[in-house]
Amino acid sequence: MNDRLPHEKGFHVSWDQIHRDSRALAWRLDHKGPGEDGAWKAIVAITRGGMAPAMIVARELDVRTVDTISVKSYAHQDQHEAEVLKKPDDAMMGDGTGILVVDDLVDTGRTLELVRKLYPKAHFACIYAKPEGAKQTDDYVTTVSQDTWIFFPWDMALQYAPPYRGTDA
Length: 169
Ligand SMILES: O=P(O)(O)OC[C@H]1O[C@H](OP(=O)(O)OP(=O)(O)O)[C@H](O)[C@@H]1O
Ligand SMILES: O=c1[nH]c(=O)c2nc[nH]c2[nH]1
Ligand SMILES: [Mg+2]
Fold this sequence. Notes:
Elements: E1 9-12, H1 15-29, E2 42-47, H2 51-61, E3 66-75, E4 78-86, H3 90-93, E5 99-106, H4 110-118, E6 123-129, E7 142-143, E8 148-151
Helix pairs in contact: 1-2
């Protein structure tokens, strides 16, 4: 099911960058929760990509209850039907009130649309947002164009790069 334009550009994110951007997201979300002093009841990461950002946000905002919802929608760069593989406890989640749901990015918005249907009162936050899906998230840090593929540090490895002025040998 991939009727979409190819990704012409690449946006390569380092560990340092994702750490800085996750912190920036956390500071933006501080005091926005419904609890005493604007605290959040819990943070739910959309696995797998939301886990590292959620951990950083949880640390910044001193939230100790962190759970996961597992949604699979891509195999490499090909999009498939979004599917929930694992959910947090229903008693904890309720309708999502006081829950901060974190993901690394929103692209078409299908993943968040699915999770929003389950928890309509939750607050959704992503590090990066592409225009098509941006309306599905309540907060984000940076936008990238729709034809850009974001490469995260956990999907990359350092590699030798030959010098620009190469040798014939
Ligand atoms: O807005 P959408 O078009 O739905 O795409 C965004 C989702 O796609 C990626 O997850 P993926 O399904 O690839 O799984 P992963 O997090 O385990 O890599 C990404 O981490 C988001 O969760
Ligand atoms: O690593 C990723 N980069 C992306 O740009 C993207 N869009 C959907 N799913 C994605 N995964
Ligand atoms: Mg994901």
